[in-house]
Automatic annotation (TrEMBL):
The keyword Coiled coil applies. It comes from Amphibalanus amphitrite (Striped barnacle). Residues 2-29, 53-87 form a coiled coil. Keywords: Coiled coil. This is Uncharacterized protein.
Length: 96
């Protein structure tokens, strides 16, 4: 009888110890899960940031291309103006 009580007490202690170990393991897994979720959130934020940077880079390239086109047009008009001025000067000199 004493042996049976002692055996049950030992089983209860082992069960309690196993449960405590399982609780500790679950806490560790929970912490790992939270860290994983934070890492995923950081990765999502990084992906969104990369997308935003790529979009801004594309917009900048578009603006630069427009500026280049405007500059080319300005140079063309400047050349035409210089040519017209030269013709005007030549005709003025010719008239005089």
């Amino acid at each position: 009888m004493v042996d049976l009580a002692h055996e049950r007490e030992q089983e209860a202690k082992e069960t309690m110890e196993a449960l405590q170990n399982e609780i500790t393991r679950l806490h560790e897994l929970s912490g790992q899960g939270e860290a994983l979720m934070a890492g995923r959130q950081d990765a999502r934020s990084g992906t969104v940031l990369l997308h935003d940077v790529a979009q801004m880079r594309s917009q900048l390239e578009t603006v630069n291309a427009k500026q280049d086109a405007v500059e080319a047009q300005r140079l063309e008009l400047e050349t035409k103006l210089e040519s017209a001025n030269a013709e005007l000067q030549a005709s003025y000199t010719h008239v005089m």
